[in-house]
Amino acid sequence: MAEPEAQLLLAVGLIEKDTNGDALWVWCYPSVTAELRSLLLRKCCLTDENKLLHTFVFGQYKRSWFYITTVEVQDSPALKKVTHFSIVLMAKDFNPEKYAAFTRILCRIYLKHGSPVKMMESYIAVLTKGICQSEENGSFLSKDFDARKAYLAGSIKDIVSQFGMETVILYTALMLKKRIVVYHPRIEAIQEFTRTLPALVWHRQDWSILHSYVHLNEEEVEALKACTGYIAGFTDSEVNSRPDLYDVYVNLADSEITISPVVKEAMTMGKLHKEIGQLIVQSAEDPDKSDSQVIKDISLKTKEILATLASLTEVSDGNEKPTLNSEALKQKRFPPATENFLFHLAAAEQMLKI
Amino acid sequence: MEEVDKILIHSLRQAGTPVPPEAQSVRDFSPELVVEAAVRCLRAIRPALGAPLSPLLPPGISARFRLASDLAAACQELGFGGDVGYQTFLYSSEHDTRRLLLFLVEKLPRDESERGAEPPGKSGVLLRAIGTRIREQLGIPWVPPACRTPQLQRLQVNFGGGPDPPQLWGANSQLGGLFLGEGGPVGLTPPPPAIWGDIYGSVLGIPMGLTPPFLPPPPQEYVGRKRLRARLRALEPLRQVCPPRPQGPPPGPLDSTWLQEAFGTGGAGGALPKGSRFTRTQHLTHEQVGWGGCWGAGGCFGRAGGGAGGLERGVCRVFWGALMVGTRPPPQVEAEVRQGRLALGAREDALRLKARAVELLPDAQNNMAKLQLVVEASSRRIVSLVGQWERHRGPLLAEYRHLRALRDSAQLESSRRLSEIRALHERSRSAADEARRKEELYKQLVAELEALPRDISRAVYTQRILEIVGNIRKQKEEISKILVDTRALQKEINSLVGKLERTFSVTDELLFKDAKRDEVVRKAYKYLAALHENCAQLIQTIEDTGTIQREIRDLEEQIEGETSAKPPASLDRILSDCRALREENALLAAQARHT
Predict the structure, then answer these.
(1) Which of A124, A265, A347 has its CB closest to that of B306?
(2) Residue range A14-27: average pLDDT?
(3) Does B339 score more than 50 pLDDT?
(4) Which residues 39-78 in chain A show a CB within 8 A of chain B?
(5) Locate the CCDC22 coiled-coil domain: which residues (chain B) (predicted)?
(6) pLDDT in tens, B141-154
(7) Which of A105, A310, B73, B523 is found 20 to 30 A from B399 (Cα to Cα)?
């Protein structure tokens, strides 16, 4: 465990929907700002008019992750006026499995006792010791849920089987730190898909670009626009008419990838990309390889490309980072698409001369 | 009846029959008019039927007769239910004529627009489009070809020849032709090159001087000019945003290398996205800070992750150098400062924590145990605080929910009451309307009742009707009585006839047996036979008399009917026509005999 739990868990909250049809924020610890409260009310499905219940959703807002588990209340003597409730957990790290398990335990405790006091005990236990007793005579241990496992939990093979060679578009976009928007009417599908995408650029191991559940709400869009490159998941099809929000638009429902004309020039693909695409597809289609092996293969190829780029850089006076030597790049006489890609990659990795 | 006739005459006039104005009703129609009206209606209803019939009644009797019978057959084909024949047209009564004409007018096609085969939509639209274009062209005054702009070139036909792809080229050929004094079709001889250069330059608005002869065809140069113009256009947005640079920084690197890089690598199209993104970022920040737009560009390119990279950085550096120093610090830099301060604060906290940890490090085990106890104690305190808060929160939440439920039910109740009240309102309003209407109706009827003539009272009519009904009933009874009597009589007659025959045959036999021997008996037998025959004759005569009397009665009834239906005038006409027909027949027969 890299960081103690106390620094990762930020807050826990409780939203209830009662027999009057109101969804209310009834309890939280230590505190949740009003802005976050309205955001989380929007994210949990209790305010929706349609009765779809999403058991577990997660997303990111301004560098903190939220995880929401929703449960329907049936015949609970402790909760008489409540029809549904959601437990919200705010944390700093990306680990859906861990927090899903944790919130499930908290849900069960709340369902049984009807009071947040018991929930609080478990929460404090996890916060201080990293372990808590669950209802079914088991226990929840934080250290069972490693961050790396969370990163590797998604299935890259599914992505490749859905998009085939077009996966290389996603790879390029991620390498060049572009803005990817994914649309699907079901949030669970988006979450499955987007959580695996950052694995394509494993060398960065940066899941903070993932915003898996975004609504077309002003504050959220503003917060999104403040990030340079991101992967954003929307369940609202209106996002297609917001070309200012994306460089690459993925319609997951129809399995279509559209590149915005603004970045078409930066993302032109050539022989190098074809190679990468073929590598990805071959690796994924191999039934003997597991997902993590596929990711390893892709990362090896990425290392190659970065090595090529590194060979073209030099450490010039005054900058600590090596910067790209454009003449060297030109001398190599790469095909134009490859040269373009390397140039933009250098820009993304901040290796360009200022 | 008059209204019906007026409508009829109006419809016939619409169908094309020239009804004279003095004909106010069907009674005034002459047979010629009737025939013409019928034929025109037939032609309107079914052209196939009406075409062979002429609307004018011929003078000859037989022709008239033929036309009338054809017309009658056509009317029957259309489905006229009543009795129609040649007499309806030539010797018609008002009633029959009216019936026939009404039938024909009803059959006339209603919708005039149905006659149009296809909708006027498509062709009408095309016609209208043509009309507007012509109007447009007519609206612009004619301009001599030399002075036409490319737009006018399109509108006013280029009589020099077909549409040339570069329209300037076409205009120039016109110009050249005019300069050389050729008014007519041009493009035959190219004018001297020097003039071309001037013409081209003046049209393009680019000062050129005398250009070398370009017979290598002008389109190449044209393309070159176009490219230059595109470059200028691409630089426009940049020029607009940033003030004209003072001559300090070297113009060289910006213009040539940047242009080359921008336009050389990607072609003319490549520069525009960069330029546009640059302008886009300009626009983003331009609204907030007017003068600081370029500063913002400088700041926000970093925000864009160096997307356009070195190019924009180079440009911005130059602009930075060009702008004046001493403007107020823009929000972008403020934001960066704030972020830096936050990071600094976080680092300070981490530093403090690590310092404390280092302090406690020497006595690690004990301190760890103490810390654990402290943590546990504080967690217990937190839990107890949560419990205390829960004791407050629970009831408050329950009360809130309870009140919400009450409010909802109250709202429901009130909305229900509201709708009930509204329904009641509606009902009362409709009842008031109803009452008012009935009031008016009552007043109207009372007025009408007053207005009715008082001389003939309703009672008289009802009395008469009841009398007539009683009479009819009595007559029915009498008729049935008579029928019963008749039947009884008939039965008696039959039985008597039967008895008579039997008696006769018995007597006949008896006498015949004795007739061979006795003379007297023979005589008696002869008398018997004669008697029987005479009686039979008598009976026959009586029966005949009865039959004839019945026939007389029928004929008398027919005569009465005929005389009432047909006025005596038509009878005269028929007789005169019959006479004329006979004369014609005689003539024709004589002619046939001669030839």
Answers:
(1) A347
(2) 87
(3) yes
(4) none
(5) 332-564
(6) 877 777 777 766 66
(7) A105
CA angle A70, A76, A78 (to 5 degrees): 100
Which of B301, B374, B379, B412 is the best residue to mutate to test the A interface, defined by the most A CB atoms within 10 Å of its own CB? B379
* Nearest CB partner across the interface for B375, out of A20, A128, A353: A128
- Identify the domain containing residue A142 by its residue range: 5-149
- Looking at the domain assignment, is residue A354 inside a domain? no
In a domain, B399, yes or no: no
Q: Stretch A203-225: mean pLDDT, rounded?
A: 88
Same domain, A133 and A18: yes
10 Å Cβ neighbour count for B87?
18
**Is some CB atom of chain B closer than 8 A to the CB atom of A339?**
no
Q: B284 or A75: whose pLDDT is higher?
A: A75
Residue A256 forms beta bridges with which residues? A251
Q: How many structural domains compose chain A?
A: 3
pLDDT at A9: 87
Residue B519's domain comprises 475-569
Q: B401: which chain A residues are within 8 Å (Cβ-Cβ)?
A: 18-20, 81
Rounded to whole angstroms, the Cα distance separating A297 from A283 reads 7
ipTM of the complex: 0.79
What's the longest Cα–Cα distance across chain B?
A: 191
Tell me if B379 and A124 make a contact (CB, 8 A cut-off).
yes
The answer for residues whose C-beta is within 8 angstroms of residue B541's C-beta and 6 or more apart is: none
Q: How far is CA B583 from CA A3, B86, B373, B545, B589, in A?
A: 137, 20, 149, 41, 10
Q: Write down the pLDDT at residue A89.
A: 92
Tens of pLDDT, residues B516-541: 888 888 888 889 899 999 999 999 99
- The token pair that represents A346 in the structure block: 């250098």
Inter-chain touch A22–B398, beta carbons under 8 Å: no
Q: Which residues are CB-neighbours of A260 under 8 A, at least 6 positions away? A: A243, A246, A247, A248, A249
Is residue B566 very low, low, confident or very high in pLDDT (cuts 50, 70, 90)? low
| Contact with chain B for residue A315, Cβ under 8 A | no
CB contact under 8 A, B401 and A350: no
Instruction: Please report the number of interchain residue pairs, chain A to chain B, with beta-carbon separation below 8 angstroms.
Output: 68
Q: Which residues of A touch B298 (CB under 8 A)?
A: none
- Return the residue of A nearest to B374 by Cα: A128
- CATH number of residue A99's parent domain: 3.30.450
**Whether residue B60 is found in the same domain as residue B24:** yes
- Residues A227/A245, Cβ–Cβ less than 8 Å: no
- Kindly report whether the peptide bond that precedes residue B453 is cis, defined as omega within 30 degrees of 0: no
Task: Please identify which residue in the block is written with the tokens 């509606």.
Answer: B426
Question: A154 touching B, CB under 8 A?
Answer: no
- Does B270 contact A354 at a Cβ distance shorter than 8 Å? no
CB-CB: which of A20, A124, A128 is closest to B405? Answer: A20
Distance CA B8, CA B20 (A): 13
> Which pLDDT band holds residue B427 (cuts at 50, 70, 90)?
very high
Residues A178 and A295 in one domain: no
The mean pLDDT value for B331-355 works out to 87
| Three-state DSSP state, A211 | strand
Compare CB distances from A352 to B270, B306, B382 and report the shortest one's residue.
B306
For residues B72 and B88, the answer to whether their CB atoms sit within 8 Å is yes
- Residue B77: per-residue pLDDT: 86
Element (H, E) at A101: helix A96-113
Chain A contact for B432, CB < 8 A? no
Joined together, the tokens standing for residue A98 give 């861990």
